[in-house]
Amino acid sequence: MKEINDIALVAQVAVFHNKRAFGQLVEKYQSPVRRFLLNLTSGDVELSNDLSQETFIKAYSNITSFKNLSGFSTWLFRIAYNVFYDYLRSRKDTSSLDDVVSQPQSSEPDAAMKLDVHNAMRILTPNERTCVSLHLMEDLPIDKIAQITGMPEGTIKSHISRGKAKLSTYLKNNGYGR
Amino acid sequence: MADKENDIVLQFLKEQKQDIPDNGFSSRVMRNLPDRKTHRLVVLGRIWSCVCIFAALLFLCSGYGQTLIVSALDNIMCQFKITELKINTTHLIFGAAAVYLATLGGLFKSLYSKILKA
After folding, report:
1. By the 8 A CB rule, do A42 and A118 touch?
2. Can you tell me the ipTM of this complex?
3. DSSP 8-state symbol, A160
4. Which CATH class is domain A2-173?
5. SS in 3 state form for B22-48?
6. Would you list which residues of chain A are within 8 Å, Cβ to Cβ, of chain B?
7. For the purposes of burial, counting CB atoms within 10 Å of the CB of A29, is it exposed (0-12), middle (13-18) or buried (19 or more)?
8. d(Cα B52, Cα B107) in Å, to the nearest integer?
9. What's the rounded Cα separation, in Å, for the pair B78 and A6?
10. What is the predicted pLDDT for the residue at A106?
11. Of A43, A83, A130, B96, which is most buried with the most CB atoms under 10 A?
């Protein structure tokens, strides 16, 4: 049902240029996309918002190229993933994300708690961070992650496994779960 | 042991996963969407496609078009000496109708694809 609703909205946008329909898609997917990019940028709110906005604008501009081979959310995450890595390439720094992203900025009351997950994610490599974020936070299956990232499923499983092991060590060292 | 480690990580990430409030984000996105203005040439292209399809339909449905297709089919059958089998005219018309429908379907599909790509 969810997929049918998305397809109906996409058709409205593609055929009739219905911006309101696209607005509904933005409202529906803004949280998962922004959360994903927030994880990739290690908690940089401004940067993740800019990248998220760019993601939706690209999705709108290329809506007619959506062929529904995968779900709309998968397609959107793929755009977000590409936008993020285009940003990294434009900074001419494809090494550790920690060198690229500034300190996370947040003024929300539970900022400390939010910073923890991003500090935890910092210990992972960008690929591990991507795979862990998509699989464990966005609950996407391995095959969808493969469609989003273009990585083989075996590689994704390796990244997730290593990511979990690193996070587990980090959490134990910081007293979580005792 | 591995399961326990797994549980800790899953529990932690589940706790940390929160919906991000919109706070005007969607409005900002909508304000910054590019205008999808239809280029004049694209509009002219669509009009020309419609004209061609209409002309083709008119030709196919006209008496002259029908006569042409029937005589073409007749010629083909003569070449293969199928007329010896005494094919019914009704069958010929049915065949011609099938050709019309196939042509219409193809034209429709190409026009629809063209509109979507524009």
Report:
1. yes
2. 0.78
3. H
4. mainly alpha
5. CCCHHHHHHHCCCCCCCCHHHHHHHHH
6. 14-15, 17, 19, 22-23, 26-27, 30-31, 34-35, 38, 49, 52-53, 56-57, 60-61, 64, 113-114, 116-117, 120, 132, 136-137, 164-165, 167-168, 171-172, 176-177
7. buried
8. 10
9. 55
10. 47
11. A130
**Using CA atoms, how far apart are residues A78 and A91, in angstroms rounded to an integer?**
20
Res. B9: pLDDT tops 80: yes
Asked if B96 and B74 count as a contact pair (C-beta separation under 8 A), the reply is: no
Helix B89-117 × helix B40-61 angle, to 10°:
180
Using a CB-CB cut-off of 8 Å, the residues of chain A touching B29 are: 26, 30, 53, 56-57
Contact B12 A171 (CB under 8 A): yes
A114 pLDDT higher than 50: no
Which tens digit of pLDDT belongs to each residue from A67-78? 877 889 999 999
If phi > 0 it is left, if psi is from -120 to 50 it is alpha, else beta; for residue A13 that is: alpha
Model pLDDT for residues A31-84, shown as the tens digit of each residue: 999 999 999 998 899 999 999 999 999 999 999 888 877 889 999 999 999 999
Question: Taking the domains of chain A in order of start, what are their residue ranges?
Answer: 2-173
Q: What is the DSSP string of A43-107?
A: T-HHHHHHHHHHHHHHHHHTGGG--SSS-HHHHHHHHHHHHHHHHHHHTT--S-HHHHS------
Region B55-64: mean pLDDT is: 78
The larger pLDDT score, comparing residue B68 to residue A143, is at A143
pLDDT surpasses 70 at B99:
yes
> Is the Cβ–Cβ distance between B110 and B45 less than 8 Å?
no
Q: Which of A30, A114, A171 sits opposite B26 (nearest CB)?
A: A30
